[in-house]
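Hi R.,

As promised on Friday, here is the backbone we talked about, encoded as structure tokens. Could you run it through your design pipeline when you get a chance and send me back a sequence?
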């Protein structure tokens, strides 16, 4: 039986898709990763993310202080989820920090805002991130710590 090979999206089409999605949630395109390997040495030490395609896989690469970490994905959808999980996390963190609520765990506001932002893009992404957050809170024993 002959296997069908899926088409790999180009970096340019991924960049265009990410730019459109960023507009939906009011994120600046400055928050997007580079869509090609970042070779500018100045960026390698401040924390930069970039996307590349190698061997028919999509790679999310993060470099900070000269150390590279990477994650590979089989489909563009999973890569874009990773990109926007990071972007919405940063946006939600800033949102929560600007609205401190004495007695309420910071993460409660942050996670709710992140899920809301992801839901604007794709309700499945919101549900997926919500499940990941549940893992953090309950299965890894890091529950909310609200004060009364």
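Update: got your reply. Pasting your designed sequence below so it's all in one thread:
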């Amino acid at each position: 039986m002959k296997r069908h090979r899926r088409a790999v999206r180009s970096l340019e089409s991924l960049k265009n898709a990410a730019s459109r999605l960023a507009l939906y949630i009011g994120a600046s395109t400055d928050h997007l990763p580079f869509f090609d390997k970042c070779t500018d040495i100045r960026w390698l030490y401040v924390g930069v993310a970039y996307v590349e395609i190698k061997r028919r896989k999509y790679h999310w690469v993060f470099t900070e202080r000269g150390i590279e970490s990477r994650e590979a994905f089989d489909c563009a959808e999973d890569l874009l989820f990773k990109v926007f999980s990071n972007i919405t996390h940063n946006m939600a963190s800033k949102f929560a920090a600007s609205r401190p609520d004495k007695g309420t765990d910071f993460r409660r506001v942050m996670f709710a805002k992140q899920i809301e932002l992801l839901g604007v893009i794709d309700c499945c992404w919101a549900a997926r991130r919500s499940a990941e957050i549940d893992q953090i809170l309950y299965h890894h024993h890091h529950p909310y710590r609200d004060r009364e």
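One thing I noticed while checking it: The chain is about 45% helix and 15% strand.

Thanks again,
M.
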